[in-house]
Every structure is written in C-alpha cells, then in structure tokens.
Fold this sequence. Notes:
By secondary structure, this protein is an alpha/beta fold. The protein is 46% helix and 15% strand. It has a single domain (4-215), classed as Alpha-Beta Barrel (TIM Barrel). 2-keto 3 deoxy 6 phospho gluconate (ELE) is lined by residues 22, 49, 51, 74-75, 96, 116, 137, 163-166, 184-187.
Amino acid sequence: MTTTAQQNHLVALFKAATVIPVLTIERIQDAVPLAKALVAGGVRTLEVTMRTPVAIEAARAMMAEVPEAVVGIGTILKPADFVRVEKLGVAFGISPGLTPDLLKVAADSSLPFAPGIATASELMLALSYGLDVAKFFPAEQAGGIKGLRALGGPFPNVRFCPTGGVGEANAATWLAEPNVVAVGGSWLCPTAEIKAGNWAGITAICQRTLKALKAT
Length: 216
Ligand SMILES: O=C(O)C(=O)C[C@H](O)[C@H](O)COP(=O)(O)O
C-alpha cells in the first residue's frame, strides 16, 4: 500500500513544478536540447511519455546531462512499463488511466505515481491502493473545471494534476482550484517546434506561461 509520506512527496513535487510539459520525443538527439530549453525557460519538471520507442533512452540522457531537470515518465500503461521505469531511477511516474494490475505494482513500489482518472469509480479504485494524487485526464473533455469541482465534493482530500486541453489560456484558471497541485500538457513543447529544433521558441513559451501565471 502506498504510504502517506510517498503521497506527500508527490504533492510537493507537483506543487514545485506548477506546470509539467508532456513530452513526445521522436528523435533521441532532441532529448537533451529539449530538456535544456525547458529548464532555461524555468520549467524543470518534465514528463517524458512512453509514446515513442526512444522514451526511456531520452529520459536517461536528460537525467545524465541536465541535472537541473526533474525527469518523470508518462504514458505508463502496463505493469511491465512500470517495472522498466522504476529501474531507471526517474523522479515520478504518470499514467493517463489505470488498471488494477498497474495499481498493484505501483502500490508495492517506492516510485511516486499518479494514475489517470476521469470518473468517480476510477478514483475509488486508485484510493483503494492508497493513491490519492491523480492525473485528471482528459481534463477539458471530461467535464473541465465543473467536472473537477464535482469530483471534489465526495473526494475532498484528493489532489489533481489536470491534463488534456490545458494551455496558456486556461492554466491559471485550473491552478486556482484548491485541489489542483499542478497542470500538465503539450502546449509547452509543440511537436512542430521540436521537429524544427526551435529550442529558443520553446524557452520563450515557458517564460511567457510562467510570467502570465505569476501575474495572476
Ligand atoms: O500521453 C499521455 O500519457 C497522456 O496522459 C496524455 C497527455 O497528458 C495529454 O494528451 C496532453 O494533452 P494536451 O496537452 O491536450 O496535448
């Protein structure tokens, strides 16, 4: 069973992050310059998704060469993925959803882990394994802020990281919710900018986002 101390650690990590870029890395050579660009823009906590074959290698390179980055892995779909990630020594793991098998390995592990939930029943399943920090996914599509507030009624102690449809225009609104500890999304690292190697452009998006959040 996941301990309270583990969950507190994950909450602290998410709160320190505020915004978490959801990274899809196609070419291994992009990993380090991308992480450097994000860190230069003030965004240190990074979610490398397992959507691509180079994800694990990319996370490893970032950890080795960009020590300021707090690297986690996302899109953990299966217990076997979780076990691979655990061995890497990343800071946290995230999933867009959950299965009982995935929750079982996560609850037996010391790796901080946020499963994805979109319904009360999914949240109840996560809570039965002691996991009370969840990704709310897909946040905008699954009811938006109204949906999150409704979940907050029966589950007042759960903390959320909404992702899916979060961007520069609405990040502050989500973060103003008392049960939101961070927001995640791909807006900080658009595919076109990664493809073009426009690292300065990615740094600028991060700076703009953080400046706008500070002003609210
Ligand atoms: O890949 C994963 O593991 C996910 O959980 C999904 C991502 O968090 C969202 O797809 C990001 O959504 P956008 O910011 O709207 O692009």
